[in-house]
Amino acid sequence: MNYLKFMERARTEFMRSLGYQHYALAEENFQFVVHSCQVRYHKPGRIDDDLRVSARLKHLGRATLLFAQTVSRNGETLCEAEIKVACVSADGIKPTALPKPLFAKFKAQVEELG
C-alpha cells in the first residue's frame, strides 16, 4: 500500500476543512510541496482494509508546516510519519510566506491542540 498517497489526501482534506482548496491556492499564486518526511512502517495494510488516516498540524513556521500523520486499521498503527510541507510561489516555485489569513487559521489549529 502507498501510505504516502493516503497521507497526502488527508492533508488535502485538512486544508479543505479550513476552507481552502488546491486550485484556489494556485490562483492566489502559492502552493504546498513536500519538503521532507520521516516515515516509520510498522505493519502492512491489505487491499480492502478499512484504514483511518490522520493529519495533525504539529508545528507552524512562516513558510512551513510540520504534520504528524498516522495510518491505522482498527485502532492499530500501521504507519506513522512527520511530513514537512513548504509554501512556495506557484509561478516560480520559490519559498514564500504563508498568506496571512491562512497563517491565522493554521495558528488557531496549533493553539487549539496546545
From TrEMBL:
Q: Residue span of the signal peptide, if any?
A: none
Keyword list, A-Z:
Hydrolase
InterPro entries in the cross-refs: 4-hydroxybenzoyl-CoA_TE (IPR050563), HotDog_dom_sf (IPR029069), Thioestr_dom (IPR006683), YbgC/YbaW (IPR006684)
A Pfam family cross-referenced in the UniProt record is 4HBT
The Thioesterase domain is annotated at 2-79
Which protein family is it in?
Belongs to the 4-hydroxybenzoyl-CoA thioesterase family.
Name-wise, this protein is: Thioesterase domain-containing protein
Q: Lineage in the entry?
A: Bacteria, Pseudomonadati, Pseudomonadota, Gammaproteobacteria, Oceanospirillales
